[in-house]
Amino acid sequence: MAEPIRVLIVDDEERFRDTLAKLLTRHGFTVRTAGGGTEALALLGQAPCDVIVLDVKMPGLTGQDALPLLRAACPEAEVLVLTGHASVDIASAMIAGGAADYLLKPCPTDELEGAIRAVYDRRQATRPR
Amino acid sequence: MKPETRPDVHAPPLWPHTLLAPVLAGAAVLLALIAPPVIGFILALFAGAVCIGSALILARRVRQGEQEVHELDLRLLQSQKLAAIGELSSGIAHEINNPLAIITQELDLVREIAGEGPDCSAADRAESRDSLREIGKQVDRCRQITHKLLNFARKMEPVLQEEALDQVIEDMALLVEREALGRGVSIVRDYAPGLPPICTDVPLLRQVILNLLTNAMHATPEGGAITLGTRRDNDKLLIEVRDTGCGITPANMPKIFDPFFTTKEPGKGTGLGLSLSHGIVARLGGTLTATSTPGKGATFTVSLPL
Predict the structure, then answer these.
(1) Helices B202-219 and B165-182, interaxial angle, to 10°?
(2) Distance to chain A for B101, nearest Cα, Å
(3) How many distinct structural domains can be found in chain B?
(4) In terms of domains, do B299 and B207 share one?
(5) CB atoms within 10 A of CB B26
(6) d(CA A29, CA A2)
(7) Which one of A12, A19, A107 has the shortest CB-CB distance to B106?
(8) Using 50, 70 and 90 to split pLDDT, how confident is the model at B1?
(9) Which domain does B126 fall in, by range?
(10) A57: nearest CA in chain B?
(11) DSSP state of A35
């Protein structure tokens, strides 16, 4: 059996990240959650992950500021931006900064799951063996 | 401004009217003085025609210029309005998308548990009930945002009435005091004696005072105090709401009256209270300002004309 995909959800809405974590866990993912960029960096320091689901507008370290730091802390992880902030500028800046995909809240769980699996599979296919 | 949109780029040059015409007219007048009467008369007519022609052309150009400036002003105003609408829409989208995202996830969880049929565990049933409760909470969060936005859109003319300022403020202080005392925050009255009655829209002013008091209460830690003060400053009446809370950082100060700006936790504040209050005070003909020493509290001052 394949290893479960390790996901880190970074979002300041506690209820959102907890319920999403429950759903993804039920669907076979290994999930950790962080309330902001700083907490996410600390968690990545403890153990790496495969996909980071990152919010943009957060108090303290915003998603945009956190993106390069998270990528440096865990270069093998793909970053999937999930935000309620609909701005083409921010989306293109995040993609240019190395994010693999950009999804807009509210996003049905199956769509988000599909996106997580897609970026994970893409990474598996392109990573050096 | 881009060169092609500048009004004078393709217009004919002005120098024939500002330079050539006066020189020609002057020369004609001088020649008329020394020329025989008939030729002098013709030259004088020529000088007059040149002056009147140029004056008419210059007047038309000035009017045209004024019209173009007016049109540019209107376009600028329109683009500023569109920018403001864009900013507001983006703010609304973000504030509504977050609770919608929570609702979506909770619904997915409830659907999944319901899909397991009647055999689902007691823990799952409790989970479903909790999800439904959360959906209700998030709907309420959206409702608060849309209702406050409706207040923004309401363009009712203020209904003016005379009222003692202390009374308006005291009504709101009593309303908030019970909750404040529960949080260990005291309310100190510092009303200046003998103030003249104020002529204003009392319900609107009450809303402002209530917003400021609620904000102050949320910002003040246990053991702190909120001071409510009134005083007269020439032809203005001032209301001060001073708290001993965390204050406002210099970085946040320019943003505090922006719609949707909040330092409260997600879901705890809509970020519309101060912006709404600012709009109301402006409609009442006054100003709402803030000063703060970070860490030592903030003071909000409503200044209203007498």
Answers:
(1) 30
(2) 4
(3) 3
(4) yes
(5) 13
(6) 11
(7) A19
(8) very low
(9) 96-153
(10) B94
(11) S
Element (H, E) at B79: helix B37-115
Q: Are residues B284 and B194 in the same domain?
A: yes
Contact A108 B106 (CB under 8 A): no
CATH, domain range A6-126: 3.40.50.2300
Q: In Å, what is the CA distance from B154 to each residue of B48, B77, B148, B150?
A: 60, 21, 10, 6
The residue written with tokens 């909040």 in the block is B262
Indicate whether B88 belongs to any domain: no
The reply to whether residue A105 touches residue B98, judged by beta carbons under 8 angstroms, is yes
| Domain stop point among B153, B172, B196 | B153
Q: What are phi and psi of B278, to 5 degrees?
A: -60, -45
Q: Which of A15, A20, A57 sits opposite B94 (nearest CB)?
A: A57
Cα A54 to Cα A51: distance, rounded to the nearest angstrom: 9
Q: What are phi and psi of B291, to 5 degrees?
A: -135, 155
Token pair belonging to A43: 């968690």
Fill in the DSSP letter of residue B306.
Answer: -
Q: What is the DSSP string of B113-137?
A: HHHTGGG--HHHHHHHHHHHHHHHH
The ipTM value here is 0.86
* Inside any domain, residue B184: yes
- Site of tokens 């020394």: B34
Same domain, B291 and B188: yes
What are phi and psi for residue A41, nearest 5 degrees?
A: -60, -40
Structure tokens at B232: 């007269």
**Do B204 and B128 share a domain, yes or no?**
no
Q: How is residue B99 written in tokens?
A: 């609770």
B258: region left, alpha or beta (phi > 0 left; psi from -120 to 50 alpha): beta
Query: What phi and psi, each to the nearest 5 degrees, are found at residue B198?
Result: -105, 145
One domain for residues B287 and B227? yes
For A34, phi then psi, to 5°, come to -140, 140
Nearest chain A Cα to B108, which residue? A109
* Distance set, CA A73 to CA B75, B96, B259 (Å): 49, 32, 35
One digit per residue, the tens of pLDDT, for chain A of length 129 reads 578 999 999 999 999 999 999 999 999 999 999 999 999 999 999 999 999 999 998 888 889 999 999 999 999 999 999 988 767 778 888 988 999 999 999 999 999 999 999 999 988 887 766
